[in-house]
Amino acid sequence: MSEPRLQSIILSDAERRELFRRAREALVQACGDQTIAADSRLLASLQAEGEQAITLAVNHQDLPRNCPCYLLDETQQSYPLHVGINTIGRLMDNDVVLRDECISRRHCAIVVHHDWRCEIYDTASKNGTFVNDQRISGPTPLRPGDRITLCNRTLTFCGVVGSVPTPPTIPTAEPLQ
């Protein structure tokens, strides 16, 4: 897999590495063609500009108006999410970076689908991912107001800011007749 945010080379424990690989495969398989295409376009445009896909915390009032979903932390800092795979962990190359030693390097990921549906996956984190105080063991749909707990950190999943933008579309060819 060429997705740098989902590499398991950092895991030295073979059993945990295998759990991470299974979680990664489930995560990638959950993305439809349109979601993968939107995520690929975003990453390609960032690479062309020499940037990384790190989601920096911003003040809530500074969120882009077309941001349909984001995470809000205890200090009222917001983390905008993009269509595609949003990785969360303590490594600097995650989309959402949380500097806390209890949080795994690649703790979890949120998939934002092209139609703005969102789900969270634990990526074999040591301390688990919790949604509304329940440990998740597989893909879990997210709804506005859901509390995501990673060790000592709690993030609130927030939905729409203003009006929901039209989901991106992928042109399709007309069927041959």
* SSE class: alpha+beta
Q: What is the number of helices?
A: 2
Morphology call: globular
The average pLDDT is: 75
How are strands sequenced across the largest beta sheet? 1-3-2-12-11-8-9
Strand content: 15-25%
What's the β-strand tally?
A: 12
Radius of gyration: 16 Å
How does the major sheet shape up?
Answer: 7 strands, antiparallel
Which blocks of ≥5 consecutive residues have pLDDT under 50? Answer: 161-165
**First CA to last CA: what distance?**
37 Å
Order of helices and strands: HHEEEEEEEEEEEE
Helix content range: 10-25%
Description:
The structure is a single chain. With 177 residues, the chain is of the alpha+beta class. It has 2 helices and 12 strands. It has a 7-stranded antiparallel β-sheet with strand order 1-3-2-12-11-8-9, with no helix packed on it. A 5-stranded mixed β-sheet has the order 5-4-6-7-10. Strand 2 and strand 3 form a beta hairpin. It is globular and about 45 Å long. About 3% of the residues have low confidence.
